[in-house]
Amino acid sequence: MADKKARLTIDGIDEVFELPVYSGTMGPDVVDVRALTGKGLFTYDPGFVSTAACDSSITYIDGGKGVLLHGGYPIEQLAENSDYLETCYLLLNGELPTAEQKQTFVNTVKKHTMVHEQMNHFFNGFRRDAHPMSIMVGVVGALSAFYHDSLDIDDAHHREVCAYRLIAKMPTIAAMCYKYSIGQPFQYPRNDLDYADNFLQMMYGNPCEDYVTNPVLAKAMDKIFLLHADHEQNASTSTVRLAGSSGANPFACIASGIAALWGPAHGGANEAVLTMLNEIGDEANIEEFIVRAKDPDDSFRLMGFGHRVYRNFDPRAKVMKQTCDEVLAELGIENDPLLKIAKRLEQIALEDEYFVERKLYPNVDFYSGIILKAIGIPTNMFTVIFALSRTIGWISHWSEFHSSPNKIGRPRQLYTGPTQRDYPTK
Ligand code: CMC
């Protein structure tokens, strides 16, 4: 327990409040402020910039040093030596699998890749021009209507089956969203292919032609999945935990995570990067956009730059940049006009005083946006792919939450509305 204490004094109150201080295995100590409620006080932290909302042993981030660890393993080492499904196992179980455990895990995921045939009809309710995220958020929420047999959140086996179903079905659903939008038939999963390759097959395959694997692109796709797999208590993961704290079913909780991810300040950034590059349109216009990004009276921001937690560099971005170079070389499109704008922006932001001073480095979504565009993924699918990748993080945190005693999440507020007054009765 706590061997350190923080002491808090407040003007006008005689008492000195002694608050326990806890240390994790790494990272900043935390001050336990729970006793303050009983004293008629709340802590105030809009945006939760100083709040540790839970205990967790899944992922560790040191934003200042640019460190990201899953189960203690640096993201760079996982990206180099592991793959997405092995990282899924690590996030869910806290340890890397043995060769046998990995094989069993991969085989079990493969058994769940198809979605219930009835779900195909569900898509027909959407307009063809609907944003794929709006389809995905609805369809994933609807999974709870199809898979009743794994909804007991207090049963560890049910939680595990749910995790398998989500990991396996998200690529299928993501690809279905795309196929629906272009009016092509859904492609069934192919379990002879690796996870990422199977996703590309469901995106680009069709019944008239054999799908041809491109190992460089499949590897890049797997890396995008792996680098987005988890990121501690970000907005969408916190949303999943909060939704889960009420006892809501896991599929509904994941749908809430997808909704939170959608915004351009979070997962929507990869799509926003491409929208921004299109808006800039020509290298000659870059300067004008840089001026706007620096203007405090203009809400425009350079999408794909900056991060709430990383104040040095985003370690995922480093790996992604390397993959980005490999993909562009493989496809021979280094001279694509939009990619040229991206490269120039990257260079300016790394040198310009405004960005350097504020430590606004390119983040993972800057490079993943460029790779996805190069692979030929339509822009409106970018955030869908982020959601697919992050599902393992969400379900791992949801499962961790339910594996130990817990409480419903219920933040309080600093009330600034009218004081009590009587309803006018004439
Ligand atoms: N372009 C221009 N200025 C920026 C940017 C940007 N992208 N990001 C931050 N700033 C400025 C901001 O105006 C402020 O300046 P000043 O101190 O003069 O007022 C300063 O930098 C600090 O910004 P902040 O708003 O306090 O930072 P934050 O931690 O609240 O926001 C962020 C973090 C990621 C929301 C923000 O950097 C941003 O909007 N970036 C663009 C969107 C983006 O790429 N998001 C994806 C993040 S990575 C994927 C994920 O993990 O979800």
Task: Please characterize this protein's 3D structure.
It holds the Pfam family Citrate_synt. Belongs to the citrate synthase family. By secondary structure, this protein is mainly α. It has a domain at about 5-50: Rubrerythrin, domain 2 (Single Sheet). Helices cover about 50% and strands about 5% of the residues. The chain has a three-stranded antiparallel β-sheet, with no helix packed on it. It has a three-stranded antiparallel β-sheet with strand order 4-5-6. β5 and β6 (about 75) form a beta hairpin. α9 (about 235-245) packs antiparallel against α10 (about 250-260) and α10 (about 250-260) crosses α17 (about 380-400). It is globular, with a radius of gyration of 23 Å. It starts with a strand and ends in a 24-residue tail after the last helix. The mean pLDDT is about 95. Carboxymethyl coenzyme *A binds near residues 301, 305, 358, 360 and 363. Carboxymethyl coenzyme *A (CMC) binds near residues 234, 358 and 364.
